[in-house]
Amino acid sequence: MPSLPHVYDSLIIGGGPGGLTAAIYLRRFTRNVAVVDKGNSRLRLIPVSHNYPGFPEGVPGPTLLGNLTVQLQRYGGAVMAGEIVDLRIEDGHFVASYLAEDADEQVELRALTVILATGVADVGLPVENWREAVAFGSVRLCPVCDGFDVMDKRIAVATAEVNPVGHALFMRTFSADVTLFERGDASILMDDDRRRLDAAGVRYIDSPLLSVTLDASMKPVLHTKDGNYEADVFYPMLGENARSSLAAKLGAETAHCDELVVDSHCASAVPGLYAIVDVTVGLNQIAVATGQAARAATHIHNRLPPALRHAVATSPLALHNEAA
Ligand SMILES: Cc1cc2nc3c(=O)[nH]c(=O)nc-3n(C[C@H](O)[C@H](O)[C@H](O)COP(=O)(O)OP(=O)(O)OC[C@H]3O[C@@H](n4cnc5c(N)ncnc54)[C@H](O)[C@@H]3O)c2cc1C
After folding, report:
1. Looking at the domain assignment, is residue 91 inside a domain?
2. Which of 84, 132, 272, 318 is buried most deeply by CB count within 10 Å?
3. Cα 315 to averaged position of ligand 1 atoms, centre (Å)
4. For 71-107, how does the pLDDT look when each residue is reduced to its tens digit (9 = 90+)?
5. Cα–Cα distance between 19 and 35 in angstroms, integer?
6. pLDDT tops 90 at residue 239
7. Nearest CA owner, ligand 1 atom 9
8. Short-list 131, 142, 236, CA closest to 181
9. Residue 131 domain-assigned?
10. What is the pLDDT of residue 311?
11. How far is the CA of 224 from the centre of ligand 1 (A)?
């Protein structure tokens, strides 16, 4: 496999808000960085985010992604389109197999450190035309992100595998009309779950959810064995899997849903291998992305061999001598 000649200070895998912010920081520390991105950041699914600070009118996810890319270019960085298909350690370097978009042959990239910012993959949505519904806002994937934006609407929530009633209870902050639907043939709700739902005034439908369609105005209709229910917005809460396999293969620790375990600098147990945001254990938010990227990038810069500024051709001492 052909190998690019130089060794990058850092290889960033993933060009969502986490990877791009880390790259901006490292470029501003004058580090030489490669960013490889496969092009399906979750930001692309966000019609408008209203909880990312600094944008009082909200910001569409694709606009934020575009702004971060331009900001990186301003510091001499660029995103390489394609995928890192393998990552290994050889002679103290990380060696990544890079398959560029539209290329047939892989190329090796070498780096002293790696930041994994590969995000998560949503586990399939049982909703017809779900992309359109997400773009329209009638199907939503993140209660923390946009609960406020569905204030007083008729909200349908499906049970999640872990803590099945948690999201429905969370949504009661925003609406008195919340209904929880059970997924799967057998009920997973325990007596205590039902008590908590009753106490909070959340309805629950025992009959398993079979499918979800959209009516003419794009509103969700939830079909169960015993009947159909209309709502204004549906949170499917199907879960997600972290794209952590490149790091796990090198021995990084994983937790629930394959999420990576990292320390307060976002370093994994594999020296030089960092992981940030959605691919790690924690809150999946853009604000977390920028914070973790800043931490990881600064830690990397402080631990790499110093990036010394070239000496200036004419030193102040030489100038003084010339004047004398
Ligand atoms: C519908 C929706 C609405 C949301 N709304 C909000 C909101 O309002 N506020 C908020 O804070 N958060 C919101 N989020 C969450 C937010 O989008 C994520 O937390 C954020 O995008 C995570 O950033 P990331 O950099 O970890 O991953 P991502 O943005 O998902 O980027 C990961 C990138 O890595 C690439 N990649 C993966 N594997 C490889 C590989 N092997 N090689 C190369 N590239 C690879 C992917 O293609 C992708 O481009 C929302 C999410 C969704 C789905």
Report:
1. yes
2. 84
3. 47
4. 999 999 999 999 999 999 999 899 999 999 999 999 9
5. 7
6. no
7. 145
8. 236
9. yes
10. 64
11. 32
Distances (CA, A) of 207 to 2, 161, 187, 228: 57, 17, 8, 11
Distance of CA 244 from the midpoint of ligand 1 (Å) = 14
Identify the DSSP state of 309. P
Among 235, 251, 266, residue at a domain's last position: 235
Q: Which CATH number belongs to the domain containing residue 153 in this structure?
A: 3.50.50.60
Identify the domain containing residue 299 by its residue range: 3-121+239-303
Mean pLDDT for the stretch of residues 248-260: 94
- Listing DSSP states for 213-225 in one string gives EE-TTS-EEEEET
Plot region of 88 (φ>0 → left; ψ -120 to 50 → alpha; else → beta): beta
Is 315 a residue whose pLDDT tops 60?
Answer: no
Domain boundary among 184, 212, 235: 235
Mark whether 206 and 290 lie in a shared domain. Answer: no
DSSP string, 69-95: HHHHHHTT--EEEEEEEEEEEETTEEE
User: Where does ligand 1 bind, in terms of residues with CB under 6 Å?
Assistant: 13-19, 36-43, 45-46, 49, 51-52, 83-84, 117-119, 134, 141-142, 145-146, 243, 277-279, 284-287, 289
Residue 268 is classified by DSSP as -
Tell me the H-state helices in 115-272.
Answer: 130-136, 143-146, 166-171, 191-200, 245-249
- 177 pLDDT higher than 80: yes
Radius of gyration of the chain (CA): 24
Q: Say how many C-beta atoms besides its own lie within 10 A of residue 247's C-beta.
A: 28
For ligand 1, atom 49: residue with the closest CA = 41
What would the two tokens of residue 59 be? 């910001």
How far, in Å, CA of 214 to CA of 12, rounded? 39
pLDDT grade for 130, boundaries at 50, 70 and 90: confident
Same domain, 77 and 132: no
Ligand 1 pocket test target in 13, 25, 41 with most atoms within 8 Å of CB: 41
| For ligand 1, mutation pick of 88, 145, 244, 258 (most atoms within 8 Å of CB) | 145
